[in-house]
Amino acid sequence: xxxxxxxxxxxxxxxxxxxxxxxxxxxxxxxxxxxxxxxxxxxxxxxxxxxxxxxxxxxxxxxxxxxxxxxxxxxxxxxxxxxxxxxxxxxxxxxxxxxxxxxxxxxxxxxxxxxxxxxxxxxxxxxxxxxxxxxxxxxxxxxxxxxxxxxxxxxxxxxxxxxxxxxxxxxxxxxxxxxxxxxxxxxxxxxxxxxxxxxxxxxxxxxxxxxxxxxxxxxxxxxxxxxxxxxxxxxxxxxxxxxxxxxxxxxxxxxxxxxxxxxxxxxxxxxxxxxxxxxxxxxxxxxxxxxxxxxxxxxxxxxxxxxxxxxxxxxxxxxxxxxxxxxxxxxxxxxxxxxxxxxxxxxxxxxxxxxxxxxxxxxxxxxxxxxxxxxxxxxxxxxxxxxxxx
Length: 390
Known about the structure:
By secondary structure, the chain is an all-beta fold. Helix content is 3%, strand content 54%. The chain is built from one helix and 30 strands. It has one helix at 5-14, and strands at residues 20-25, 28-31, 37-40, 45-50, 58-65, 68-76, 83-92, 95-101, 107-113, 116-123, 130-136, 139-145, 152-157, 165-174, 178-188, 196-203, 209-215, 219-224, 230-235, 238-243, 252-254, 269-274, 277-286, 289-296, 303-304, 311-317, 323-329, 342-350, 358-365, 381-388. The strands form six sheets. It has an eight-stranded antiparallel beta sheet, covered by helices on one side. A hairpin with a 5-residue loop joins strand 8 (95-101) and strand 9.
């Protein structure tokens, strides 16, 4: 079903809706109605409820300076919901730009200005769950992805003459009372002069990410400690431990000479004991493409595991021997050297290479993102580090 003029009408109406400050909304801090927006701290999920009046959407947002990147997974909490649109919006003094999913999860990109709305782009061929909207100076780029896949560009709007400060966030609109959920929400800026680190975990089966700790220092070497209740990592020059059993736990500094259970690994090589002997999983550059390979410990019988168009680094095998995780970069990066703070994906695939690798996290990655064994002891989660300029 095509998005009707109603969508543009409620976007216009939203320009006159008062926004209420509410600092406990994760990465956002203002909303149209505090009773209609809930941020669940434990699960880090947004729940937005739309009232049964199609003229007024529910919005949660913040004012942003300069370039930014907003990413999230959008879904309906109500299985039979019939909402008109949910997605990202960017507001300027002259109007709105919005990337949205309709109730069938097809992507539309709209523009509203001077009380007139128009659909700038649509994709009715594939259904999507993930959406990005990125600002780079006067250009807005909209991307979308299916669960487990990479982002593809839907629309790029240039020469917009955007002011330095815009309002950006999530909106939900429709004609019926409905609640929608948005998770894995990330507000990032490309890392430049100063890099901020975010220590995260991701559930391999559900793809749900959780932020554990943020730091103005470079974090790397993040890994689970024995027992699976604490994480060990290096923040700047200091080793720190984070207790996962305590709510709002603060990392504790440790003596670097007495690190319990620290597991080392080659940057692009990992040895795994199997019923067929020790296998070595490694990243190999062949004919300009970096892929994951497997060989015997003596170097015999090399087998290529990944075959698609991405450059794969840091093979990490789960403790149960079933999953192979990796850090994958797009084809345009230089595969000869590990890219520094570039767009990447954490992907997983069965160790035998059966099927296509599935993306479970999109991030700005660097050498410290997955440079040591990073699986939980139960093989259900990965820890990794993402980087941002804010």
